[in-house]
Specification:
alpha+beta; 10-stranded antiparallel beta sheet; 8-stranded parallel beta sheet; 12 helices; 31 strands; 30% strand; globular
């Protein structure tokens, strides 16, 4: 299958970048002059390599006739798109009009969001004579998207999230960067009208736009660490110090490997692969950024553009504007129930670590094959949790989508207090000895079978009391059902010896490291249930399914399958979590469990 590799090259002229004004100590006019020159350099570099761009005009740059005229010229000459960014709001005109230092569109009150959107869109129309087809911000909440689409129907594409920009980014910015937006897709998606993180379930749920991420990031290094160091934005790679000097030349093979890893995703997504490069002028500051001089910042940008340009010359890349990409994506993604898939390997440290990311309208999840296929992240999109964010709402700045499992914020298998971490995995026991597949490193392969996504892990071997047990894990994501079928197969002859499998789910819920009250949670096996009271109680019995109902995140999680017994367990105050488990004792065959997520009443 020939992969269609699509790239969006997006430039944002900012004549008043707040970080440059405040950190450089230079006067406003000097910053504006420098920003203008950097924007012109970015555009020139793209065009020199035969690449189209999307110019995301900011509020501040709408006051510049120079920027407006450049945008018009490049639209006519090169086919560049003129879009409208809701970043770049802070400037003296904005502050004077709105009497605020705030500048993130999703953090304003709903009334202010409408007022600002109307103001900026009107200015855009006055300058260009048409309304934009694309817009964006670090994050775009459902209210803002719905309002824009209703009032300005020409908009068909928006930058709508910055992938995994949550507590990890907050901590690496000295606890000062209040842009929390964990839990969304890493790849383009059609947002739900209810919550912009969730892919739309059907036409009625379709917000009317195609959303793209703010950056294309390393789906392994970014999840494990600070995402700001790992993206197809050359200055991210420099900030992460992932380069070396060869004579007089700087080399950054990681940047090219990262772009190629995104190209590789076409193998898992019906031949379509996506990448984006979005850089504001502040990243190419004449005084340098971090330890990098301007010359290196400039070289990295030129080299990155050259790499994309060469791919285009070889017929390996489509350079589309944002609105062109929206049309392309809808053509590729006609079935709302299609998933976005990424079997992602470590390209930074050279390990054999491998993650599988999956997202559809029912859930987003990540399987870690360095831990035998353990689930280390799970977000219940099926719940369609209403998104109310900004001044006047309970959540003013945290736009994240809640997790049920998150191995970085609520630990995973490897915890100080055994069993307390959120993870989905399997334990095997024999003659009083037990081990967990989290301890078994493996790799996996991807298949699509009758519409379902099937991930098959390489077999692993465990030895308990002298008995070798060879196990293969298979994960089947059932299209359009919100179900993950998990099989653990014994593939060697145990000569009649019986072993016990325990498929288990240790879960929590929240937006960060801290657990909310669990007393509304209900756990049960069939018709026997209990309210969560932090007493460590269990229900263990034969039955049809085990479940946990979590009203705070509108989600019901259940296990079902042909097993000997199910179990649910409440945690204690020191270990606030909930547990589901399914048991089966066998000498051959395996255990098959269905993990199901549905919206709770």
């Amino acid at each position: 299958m020939k992969t269609k590799f699509v790239v969006n090259i997006i430039h944002r002229p900012e004549l008043s970048p707040e970080y440059a004004e405040k950190s450089s100590g230079v006067k406003e006019k000097s910053v504006q002059d420098e920003s203008l020159e950097i924007f012109k350099f970015q555009q020139e570099t793209a065009h020199k390599n035969g690449l189209k761009t999307t110019i995301q005009i900011t509020y501040a740059s709408l006051f510049s006739d120079v920027i407006v005229n450049i945008a018009k010229e490049h639209h006519e000459k090169y086919g560049d798109e003129i879009g409208l960014s809701l970043l770049g709001l802070p400037c003296k005109e904005f502050r004077a009009k709105y009497k605020t230092e705030d500048f993130c569109i999703w953090m304003f009150s709903d009334k202010q969001k409408e007022e600002i959107v109307d103001d900026v869109f009107k200015m855009f129309y006055d300058k260009f004579g048409f309304y934009p087809e694309s817009t964006g911000s670090y994050f775009m909440d459902a209210y803002t998207i719905n309002y824009i689409k209703k009032k300005y129907p020409s908009v068909k594409c928006a930058i709508a999230t910055c992938w995994e920009e949550g507590p990890k980014a907050y901590h690496t910015c000295n606890n000062s960067w209040y842009t929390f937006m964990d839990g969304g897709p890493w790849n383009p998606w059609i947002p739900s009208k209810v919550n912009s993180h969730c892919p739309a379930l059907n036409k009625d749920d379709d917000s009317g736009i195609v959303a793209i991420p703010h950056l294309s990031r390393d789906l392994l290094a970014c999840f494990d660490g600070n995402g700001s160091n790992f993206g197809t934005h050359p200055q991210n790679v420099l900030r992460g110090m992932i380069y070396y000097k060869d004579g007089d030349k700087i080399e950054y093979p990681y940047l090219y490997n990262l772009i190629d890893q995104y190209r590789h995703l076409g193998k898992y997504n019906n031949g379509y692969a996506y990448n984006m490069m979005f850089v504001g002028p502040g990243w190419l500051n004449q005084k340098g950024r971090w330890e990098c001089p301007y010359e290196l910042l400039k070289q990295s940008y030129e080299d990155g553009m050259r790499y994309y340009g060469n791919l285009k010359k070889q017929g390996e890349l489509l350079d589309l504007t944002m609105s062109e990409f929206a049309d392309f994506y809808r053509e590729q993604h006609r079935d709302y129930l299609d998933s976005e898939n990424a079997l992602w390997k470590d390209i930074l440290y050279g390990s054999q670590k491998q993650y599988f990311w999956y997202a559809d309208p029912f859930f987003r999840t990540c399987l870690d094959f360095n831990q035998g296929g353990a689930m280390i992240d799970l977000r219940p999109y099926v719940a369609r949790i209403p998104q109310n964010i900004g001044i006047g709402h309970d959540q003013v700045y945290d736009a994240s989508y809640p997790y049920l499992i998150q191995a970085n914020y609520r630990a995973g298998y490897f915890t100080h207090y055994a069993g307390a971490g959120t993870v989905e995995s399997c334990k095997i026991s024999y003659h009083g000895q037990e081990t967990d597949l989290c301890l078994c490193r493996t790799l996996a392969k991807f298949e699509k079978i009758d519409g379902d996504v099937v991930i098959t892990a390489n077999p692993v071997s465990v030895v308990l009391d002298g008995l070798e047990i060879v196990i293969q894990s298979v994960f089947t994501f059932k299209k359009g059902k919100g179900e993950l079928v998990i099989e653990r197969k014994i593939i060697n002859d145990l000569k009649g010896e019986k072993v016990t499998f325990k498929e288990y789910f240790t879960g929590a819920f929240g937006l960060n490291e801290y657990q909310s009250d669990l007393s509304k949670v209900t756990l049960g096996v069939d018709n026997e249930e209990m309210k969560y009271q932090y007493l460590g109680r269990k229900i263990n019995k034969a039955g049809k399914k085990a479940y946990v109902n979590i009203p705070d995140v509108l989600t019901n999680i259940s296990y079902s399958g042909d097993v000997d017994a199910f179990e649910v367990e409440e945690g204690i105050a020191f270990s606030p979590c909930y547990k589901l488990a399914a048991y089966k004792t066998i000498d051959k065959g395996g255990i098959k469990t269905c993990l199901n997520l549905v919206k709770a009443n």
